[in-house]
Amino acid sequence: MTGSDVKGSGAVSILIPAPSSVTVTVPKAMARGSGEKKVEDAVYQFIRAKRILGQTRINTATIADALDIPHRAVEKAVRGMSSRGVRRLG
Hints:
3 strands; 3-stranded antiparallel sheet
């Protein structure tokens, strides 16, 4: 899925840094505070997994669908990842 596949959905493409390894976990609940951290960690690990598979750009809508979490939660998590090397392109 590319950014052109989801026009009008509010999705944002991001550039994915190359990691050396990956572990993917998905939070079961989105409680305030620690739940937001778990969402951010899950999103980051998903991005890392995609990078290992050779994908250098991923759409936030794709992440939300894959992890079955709200798109807004993915957007918020991605905004907090600049220190981890994840760049928003849109």
